[in-house]
Design brief:
mainly beta
C-alpha cells in the first residue's frame, strides 16, 4: 500500500504537461489532464502498469488507455493506444496482463503479452465473448484461473453452458421486443444512471489461457470458445459482489488460488439493509456441477455481524482474511473498522482503529510476510498511511499495536 501510494504521486508528476501561456486554471485545462488509475507493480518489481483516462470534451467521451513506466525511472509510455483499455491486472508470471476493453462485443476481458525486457506489448487478444459482458477481472495467484464479474439473469443459474445460452437468449428477447417499458417489483432497481433490468452481478471463474495456445486478435493467444466454460460462483437472486462506487475490490482469491471470498447482501429488502456479509466458496467444481452444489459449498463467515462487512483480502500465508466492517446495522455512515478473520478457528479480531483513535479505515494491504497490514485513514484533513503490526501466533482479543507511518 505504501509503495502504491508513492507510485501514484510519481505518476501524477510523470505524465506529460502541456506548456501554455500563464493563465487562470480553467475547466478545459482540468479536462485536458489525464486521470491516472491505480498503479500496479509487476511481479518482478521492475515495471508499473496503470490506466490513464483521456477526456474529449467535444465528443463527450472518456477513454482509458494502459501505460507503463519503469520503477527505476524513465519515460512513461502508452502501450495500448489503438483501443480503450482499463483495469490492467498482471499475471503472476509477469509475462502477460489482463485488461477490460469495449473494442468488440461490449465490455470484455482481453489479454496482452508483455515483454519485460523492453516494456512493450507484443500481442493482445480478446479472452471473453460473453453476451452479458465482463469486467472486474482478477488473476488467481497460482496463475490457473481468471475471475470476472458479469450482470446476468438470476433465473438462468445453472451449469456453465446452459447458463450462458439462457442469458444470451434473454438478452436477444429483450433487444427484439417491441415493448421497451421496464417493470420493477422490488428495490433496488437502479444505481445512478444504470438500470439493473432484472439482472444481478455475479462472479465467474474460467481457466486462464496458456501462452502457447493460438487464438484470435493481434498476436498469439487463447481462443474464445473456452469462455462457455466460465463457472458462476455466486448463483442466486443477489448481487455478488455488492454495488460499489470504487475503491478496493469486494472479492479476492486465496493465495493458493483454490477459494474466493466475496461480499454480498442476502437480506430480504436490500434497500433498507447494510448487512453485507463475507462468503467463501471453492473455485474448482466438476463441469456438470449444478448451482445447488455451488451454494452448498458456500459459507457465510460473518453472519454474526448484522452490519456491513466488505473488501476481503487474504494474508499472503493464507491463514487470515482481513476485511473492513461496520458495527451499527442500517447506518451507512458508521465507522469502518479493520478486522481479521482466522481461517482455522473462525475467530474475528478488530485491529483498527484502536481505543485511542476514532478514524475509519480506508484502503489496506498486507505486508508480503503477513506480519502487518498497511492502511489509509483520513484524520484531521489528512490521509496518513498507518500500519498494524502483530505477532500472528499471539493474536488475542481486541486491537493491538497501531503506529502511524507518514
Amino acid at each position: 500500500m505504501r509503495r502504491t501510494l508513492l507510485l501514484m504521486s510519481v505518476l501524477c508528476v510523470a505524465l506529460p504537461c502541456f506548456a501554455q501561456t500563464k493563465h487562470p486554471f480553467t475547466f478545459e485545462d482540468m479536462m485536458a489532464l489525464k486521470r491516472v488509475g491505480e498503479p500496479l507493480p509487476s511481479p518482478d518489481g521492475k515495471w508499473v502498469l496503470f490506466a490513464a483516462v483521456d477526456v474529449a470534451l467535444k465528443a463527450n467521451t472518456k477513454t482509458p488507455h494502459v501505460w507503463v513506466v519503469a520503477i527505476a525511472g524513465g519515460k512513461e509510455q502508452e502501450i495500448i493506444s489503438d483501443q480503450d483499455a482499463d483495469r490492467p491486472r498482471w499475471a503472476p508470471d509477469g509475462k502477460r496482463f489482463a485488461f477490460v476493453s469495449t473494442k468488440a462485443g461490449g465490455s470484455q476481458i482481453w489479454i496482452a503479452d508483455f515483454d519485460g525486457a523492453t516494456g512493450t506489448v507484443t500481442a493482445k487478444y480478446r479472452l471473453t465473448n460473453i453476451a452479458t459482458e465482463a469486467s472486474g477481472e482478477l488473476w488467481s495467484p497460482d496463475g490457473t484461473n481468471i475471475l470476472f464479474t458479469s450482470d446476468v439473469y438470476p433465473e438462468c443459474d445453472g451449469a456453465p453452458a446452459a447458463e450462458a445460452d439462457c442469458n444470451a437468449k434473454k438478452l436477444d428477447e429483450a433487444k427484439n421486443s417491441k415493448v421497451k417499458a421496464l417493470i420493477f417489483t422490488h428495490l433496488l432497481y437502479r444505481h445512478w444512471n444504470a438500470y439493473k433490468q432484472g439482472k444481478r452481478t455475479h462472479i465467474f471463474v474460467m481457466a486462464a489461457p496458456s501462452i502457447a495456445e493460438p487464438g484470435e486478435g493481434t498476436g498469439a493467444g487463447h481462443g474464445l470458445g473456452a469462455v462457455t466454460a466460465a463457472r458462476d460462483l455466486t448463483p442466486g437472486d443477489y448481487d455478488a459482489p455488492t454495488f460499489s462506487l470504487g475503491g478496493q475490490d469486494n472479492y479476492a482469491f486465496s493465495p493458493d488460488g483454490q477459494e474466493i471470498c466475496y461480499s454480498s447482501n442476502h437480506d430480504p429488502v436490500e434497500a433498507i439493509s447494510t448487512n453485507k456479509d463475507l462468503f467463501t466458496v471453492p473455485v474448482n467444481f466438476p463441469a456438470d456441477a449444478s448451482s445447488a452444489q455451488v451454494l452448498a459449498a458456500t459459507r457465510n463467515i460473518t453472519a454474526d455481524n448484522k452490519a456491513a462487512d466488505e473488501t476481503p483480502l487474504y494474508s499472503p500465508d493464507g491463514k487470515y482474511i482481513a476485511y473492513r466492517a461496520q458495527a451499527r446495522p442500517g447506518d451507512e455512515s458508521d465507522r469502518w473498522r479493520l478486522m481479521l478473520y482466522d481461517r482455522k478457528t473462525s475467530r474475528k479480531t478488530q485491529f483498527a482503529p484502536t481505543t485511542k483513535t476514532d478514524f475509519w479505515v480506508g484502503a489496506f494491504a498486507w505486508a508480503p510476510d503477513s506480519s502487518k497490514i498497511y492502511f489509509v485513514a483520513d484524520d484531521k484533513g489528512e490521509s496518513p498511511i498507518y500500519s498494524v503490526s502483530f505477532n500472528i501466533i499471539a493474536v488475542d482479543d481486541g486491537p493491538l499495536d497501531g503506529s502511524e507511518l507518514c
